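User: Second chain of the day. Same drill as before.
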Amino acid sequence: MSTLLRTPGQSPMLPGTVTAGGLVFTSGLIAPTAFAAMPTGAEVPAGQQITEVVELLRGTLADAGVDTSRVVKLNAYLSSAELFGAWNEAFRSVWPEPGPARTTLVAVFASPVVHIELEAIAAL
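Assistant: Same format as last time:
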């Protein structure tokens, strides 16, 4: 049985990553300003959230000892289909063709403040 390694996440109840079997799995990541605004309901622009969550993903993966070039699967959840163009632009800035396997969905979040959430799987 392989050892599970965890890095701290955005909340004490969620790890940033769990590493097992040669793979690094992230928890769902939300832009830090949106995470902080959830209790108050303050609006954080979607474009800002996209930029922040991509940087958070970079840092979260780095904490687990990998970088974005090792991402093999990426799931993105958007609050609106209207954000797809901005998300695509951010995606291509990190992963020029070909990038990781990818899924993008429009989702209803538990907090209306959130406009994007990312989760990734990376190879060690």
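The beta strands are 5-11, 14-20, 23-26, 29-30, 71-78, 101-106, 116-123.

User: Great, on to the next one.
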